[in-house]
Write a structure and sequence with these properties.
Keywords: ATP-binding, Ligase, Nucleotide-binding. One of its GO terms (molecular function) is ligase activity. ATP-dependent carboxylate-amine ligase which exhibits weak glutamate--cysteine ligase activity. This is Putative glutamate--cysteine ligase 2. Belongs to the glutamate--cysteine ligase type 2 family. YbdK subfamily. It is a single chain. A hairpin with a 5-residue loop joins strand 8 (about 215) and strand 9 (about 220-230). The two termini are about 20 Å apart. This protein has a single domain, classed as Creatine Kinase, Chain A, domain 2, CATH 3.30.590.20. By secondary structure, it is of the alpha+beta class. It has a three-stranded antiparallel sheet with strand order 5-9-8. A two-stranded antiparallel ribbon has the order 1-4. The protein has a two-stranded antiparallel ribbon with strand order 2-3. The chain contains 14 helices and eleven strands.
């Protein structure tokens, strides 16, 4: 999430100060083995929140609220607010956090790195093995553009309306390892490609595998990375539930030997571009036909696909209600533009996003 000045809404490079305050203010949660956290990110004008692993959506809702609240409380002591925006509506000159890794990235990627300031929503879902994980990756790749459209929350960039619902997706396209991945077929092929990418020296290490979904480095999970940071806690809960539904459905298909969809990666790139451009304001690419369809038809198809998994997890009603709310009220991109249309001031867009952040730490 962005760290923005309380007076004018502009991003401020205070993540180092915020992390010190977050460490001193964080309150423990009894009975939790793996804790969430507030952590730094690539640029000093942003912060990352992690949630502890949970099994149900109510637990996830509390975790997201708690850690957004922790970040907000620490930010207030630095004269800042936390804004759940995927890009900055107001002009900003990003300043990279101090670390050898980030210094290497700035030197290697030059203007791409110097201009990069985006915030995403990454969802981890557990898998039993790398083989199952790659089987999942091969089967969910066709649905990830729909998640981008649903979560789109970055229409503005450096003081201008970009014409995109998710300009974050365009900024990420400048990085060499970003985007939809090919069909792998096996964990061996996945790891072979990752090794070759690292050995190419174009990227620094495995942490720079920026696929829309990948095997996580440090956890036994599939990490789905396609979504913008979500405008509200409830939208984040819906996106996470859909991700779990996709992984559970794909794992079952893999276990029963159902073939993964044979969709060319280039078509998925087109679908991702279309999702970033239109969001929920137009038509998305239906991967089955390769043709544009109304956005809510495509999202309805996604819900039908994962419906049995959502029902089994007890998540279906929450997702249905959440999607209905987004259809009525709009996602982050639509809400940002509605605020600007009403006031004509981008600072009000930032202020409205700040109001979505929990103001109290949720225990």
């Amino acid at each position: 999430m962005l760290l923005v000045d309380t007076r004018n809404g502009r991003p401020r490079s205070v993540s180092g100060q915020l992390l010190v305050r977050a460490a001193s203010q964080s309150t423990p949660v009894a009975g939790v083995g793996v804790h969430g956290a507030v952590e730094g990110e690539f640029q000093q004008q942003q912060i990352e929140t992690h949630t502890a692993p949970v099994a149900d959506l109510q637990g996830l809702r509390c975790e997201i609220s708690r850690w957004r609240g922790e970040a907000a409380a620490a930010a207030r002591d630095t004269g800042c607010n936390v804004a759940p925006l995927a890009t900055s509506p107001l002009a900003v000159r990003p300043i990279a956090a101090r670390s050898p890794r980030y210094a290497w990235m700035v030197d290697r990627y030059q203007l791409t790195a110097r201009e990069h300031l985006t915030c995403g929503c990454h969802v981890h879902v557990s898998v039993e093995s790398d083989e199952e994980g790659v089987g999942v990756l091969d089967r969910i790749r066709v649905w990830l553009p729909a998640l981008l459209a649903l979560s789109a929350n970055s229409p503005y960039w450096n003081g201008a309306d970009t014409g995109f619902a998710s300009y974050r997706s365009q900024a990420l396209a400048r990085w060499p390892s970003w985007g939809p991945a090919d069909h792998f077929g096996s964990a061996e092929e996945y790891h072979r490609l990752v090794r070759e990418m690292v050995l190419s020296s174009v990227i620094l290490d495995e942490g720079m595998i920026y696929f829309d979904a990948r095997l996580a480095q440090h956890y036994p999970t599939v990490e789905i990375r396609s979504a913008d940071v979500c405008f509200t806690v409830e939208e984040a809960v819906v996106v996470a539930a859909l991700c779990r539904g996709l992984v559970e459905t794909a794992a079952e298909e893999w276990a029963f030997g159902k073939e993964a969809p044979a969709v060319p990666t280039q078509l998925l790139r087109l679908a991702a571009w279309q999702s970033g451009r239109e969001g929920l304001g137009g038509r998305l690419i239906d991967w089955r036909s390769g043709l544009p369809k109304p956005c809510w038809w495509v999202l309805g198809s996604l819900l039908d696909h994962v419906g049995p998994a959502l029902q089994a997890a007890g998540d279906l009603e929450v997702v249905q209600e959440g999607l209905a709310r987004v259809q009525e009220e709009g996602n982050g991109a639509m809400r940002q533009r509605a605020t600007f249309a009403r006031t004509g001031r981008l600072v009000d867009v930032v202020a409205e996003s700040v109001r979505q952040t929990p103001t109290r730490v949720q225990a």
